[in-house]
Write a structure and sequence with these properties.
231 residues, alpha+beta, 5 helices
Length: 231
């Protein structure tokens, strides 16, 4: 039994409040236990400037931010230079969302995902990825309803979860205390069909075996299927 009373394979209370903001065509408040993230999706009817002129395709990118009072000690706003951690998470969110979208069906559009953490207690990047998918579907549904899109470019749902190993035990959906003390820390992104999009695993305290890697995969797959059902 973990410090918050959960079983090893049990995820925290997960909640998605759709349409959380007024102006963004896609928005959601994501809650993974005490971790809370506002995720918005906006769209421009132009493709990125770096994309070849003869290429009919869209693009999706992401921006991520920890708001100053989201952590137990106030963090500084990243006004002029993004930290390596922030850049890594932004790229992870973007890669994850692009993996579930047919960019050609999106047409010459650029979608931006904004994930702002208002309260952090571990798993902010995986909560942001789940929220990004929900916000994206809200936006796409509006484009389909308005006739701006004729085909749904979303291939299949995706979700993400954190998994760790502590004292030989596989733990699913780590809160901050667990995340900061585990021997192994992993963030896993998967599709509804079970395909791996990202598998980030790091030996923080001890190295891990192939058997433990497989057990982390199984724990993540079970949790991700449960999260997708909540969309």
């Amino acid at each position: 039994m973990r410090q918050d009373g959960r079983e090893n394979g049990q995820i925290r209370r997960v909640k998605f409040t759709k349409g959380f903001t007024k102006h963004a065509p896609g928005s959601v408040l994501v809650e993974f236990g005490d971790t809370k993230v506002i995720v918005c999706a906006s769209v421009e009817n132009v493709k990125p400037k770096w994309m070849p002129k003869d290429e009919v395709s869209g693009w999706i990118s992401a921006e991520y931010s920890l708001l100053p009072s989201s952590t137990n000690v106030r963090c500084q706003r990243e006004r002029t230079k993004l930290s390596g951690r922030t850049q890594e998470i932004q790229r992870l969110i973007g890669r994850s969302i692009r993996a579930c979208v047919d960019l050609e069906k999106l047409g010459e559009r650029t979608i931006t995902i904004d994930a702002d953490v208002i309260q952090a207690d571990g798993g902010t990047r995986v909560a942001s990825i789940c929220g990004a998918y929900v916000a994206l579907t809200e936006l796409i549904n509006k484009l389909l309803k308005n006739g701006e899109l004729t085909q749904n470019p979303i291939i299949e749902p995706i979700a993400a979860i954190s998994v760790g190993i502590k004292n030989g035990e596989i733990l699913t959906d780590l809160c901050y205390v667990e995340d900061s003390t585990t021997d192994v820390d992993a963030n896993i992104v998967m599709s509804a069909s079970g395909k791996i999009i990202e598998f980030q695993a790091t030996a923080e305290g001890k190295s891990f075996s192939k058997d433990e890697l497989n057990k982390m995969y199984e724990a993540a797959e079970n949790a991700i299927q449960r999260i997708i059902k909540l969309y």
